[in-house]
Amino acid sequence: MTDIDTTSIRRSAVYGAPPADLVEVPAGAVQLSPLRPGAEAVESLPDAVFDEIVVAAPPGSIERRFVLAHALRILLPDGLLTVSAAKDKGGQRLRGELEAFGCDVAERFKSRQRICSVRRPDAPHGLADAIEAGAPVTLEVSGLRSQPGIFSWNRVDPGTSMLCRHLPKLAGKGADLGAGLGILSIAALASPSVEALTLVEIDRRAIEAARVNVADPRAHFLWADARQTALSDLDFVVSNPPFHAEGIEDRGLGQAFILAAGRMLRRSGLLCLVANRHMPYEDELRATFRSVTTVADEAGYKIFEARK
Question: Is residue 1's pLDDT more than 90?
Fold first, then answer.
């Protein structure tokens, strides 16, 4: 048996899902995206540990610079960073953002994507400022813990606010699917008849913030994809389901959340859901639940109550 010299093995990482037909991700790359349950947290990694990192750049500028700064921080000197971004989702700014860190940028364009490659300079500059700007923060107005990149990170989403106002008296065991910062969960837990509530959220940053925001012993936190969660025999589910996946609209997400809620609820269990008025959810609701009621229809949103 031949001993393997581990010092010669390249250690690589990937953030998100770069386009497979445009960017090659090294085999065995460590996943760093907070939207991939089980991934490593880029913030917790030490400096200079990777030879190569491939990043699908987030669309938000603060979040994107935060990710790029961390990627450069954890690269070894002269390590390779490859970043892709759609032209209309940060791609137009990508070169300038990397140059602002002191990188020499090589770029190419294909399929409306800008792909930039850089070698980590010996002394990149501005990393600490970008990391600080994108770090978790306590919002002054609401007092909520949050972070750039989380859905509606610096304001209460109008749909969530509307559902909070229209929640019935809830009781028993329930779940908040796509819980975000925990705002809807706080409203649900205002009912003393609620025995337990599981906050299910695919964004690690949001779950970490929700642990701070929802200070209730009945709350449980699950970093997971709600569509694949094995919760069952619940009395109620509340949800403001997403319709974007990493910046790309996907109306099927909400429909999948409805199906997941149907699987989780016991007989006569209740789903309380808010959605943008144009979302095609009503057929899915009626196919999954025995009764569906439109509780409110205002300001571009609809609220549904559906019984299993």
Answer: no
pLDDT tens readout for residues 62-102: 999 999 999 999 999 999 999 999 998 999 999 999 999 99
Rounded Cα distance, 268 and 135, in Å: 42
The answer to whether 173 and 253 are in contact (CB under 8 A) is no
Instruction: Judge whether 81 and 74 are in contact, CB under 8 Å.
Output: no
| pLDDT mean over 230-241 | 97
b vs e for 239-258, b when ≥16 Cβ sit within 10 Å of the residue's Cβ? bbbbbeeebeeeeebbbbbb
CA 230 to chain centroid: 20
Taking the C-alpha atoms of residue 273 and residue 163, their distance in angstroms, rounded to an integer, is 7
Which residues are paired to 305 by β-bridges? 272, 293
pLDDT of 252 > 90? The answer is: no
Radius of gyration of the chain (CA): 21
Distances (CA, A) of 115 to 69, 105, 246: 17, 10, 17
In our burial notation (b when 16+ CB lie closer than 10 A, e otherwise), range 30-58 reads bbbbbbbbebeebbebeeeebbbbbbbbb
Q: Which residue has the tokens 């649900």?
A: 188
List, in sequence order, the alpha helices (H) in 75-224.
Answer: 92-100, 127-133, 158-166, 183-188, 204-213
Q: What is the SS3 assignment for 249? A: strand
Q: Which of 196, 249, 259 is nearest to 225 (CA)?
A: 259
228: left (phi over 0), alpha (psi -120 to 50) or beta: alpha
pTM: 0.92
CA–CA gap between residue 8 and residue 6 (Å, rounded): 5
b/e sequence 113-148, b meaning 16+ C-beta within 10 Å: bbbbbbebeeebeebeebbeebeebeeeeeebbbbb
HSE on the CB side for 225, CA within 13 Å? 11
pLDDT for position 3 = 39
**Alpha-carbon span 290 to 307, nearest angstrom:** 6
